[in-house]
Amino acid sequence: MFTVQLDTIRLWVPVGLYRQEAVLKNEITVHIAVRVPGVSPGSLPFIDYAQIYEVVRACCTEQTGLLEELLAAMHSGITALYPGTLVNVSVSKLYPPLGGNVAAATVSWNDF
């Protein structure tokens, strides 16, 4: 199977349930892999990782309460752009405001 992936995309995003998170924003990282099943090495498709990045970036412009909403939007955007592909995506909020020393809170979806 053919896979294109982008690792450790870093963005500042207005995500979170607390009011100040919309203003101050949170740093997130995104890991995303797009797989095209059933192709041979002689006929590899073109998956534009710049377009994948743009889908991720566009999903991060609006205020969102939950990481799960970001995750779902990214997955939907990629599968709409490249129908028939399988997508693994994880979104991590770095140093979430939990009152303790937590490096990241992460949600993931794996099609493969």
CATH topology: GTP Cyclohydrolase I, domain 2
Q: Mean pLDDT, as a whole number?
A: 94
Helix content: 25-40%
Structural class given helices, strands, pairing? alpha+beta
Major beta sheet, specifics? 4 strands, antiparallel
Total domain units:
1
Radius of gyration: 15 Å
So what's the oligomer here? single chain
The total beta strand count reads 4
Strand content: 25-35%
Assign the CATH class.
Answer: Alpha Beta
- Overall geometry comes to elongated
- Count helical runs: 3
Spans where pLDDT lies below 50 across 5 or more residues? none
How would you name the CATH homologous superfamily?
A: GTP cyclohydrolase I, C-terminal domain/NADPH-dependent 7-cyano-7-deazaguanine reductase, N-terminal domain
Topology:
Layout lengths: L1 E12 L5 H6 L1 E11 L12 H11 L7 H15 L4 E9 L9 E7 L2
Antiparallel strand pairs: 1-2, 2-3, 3-4
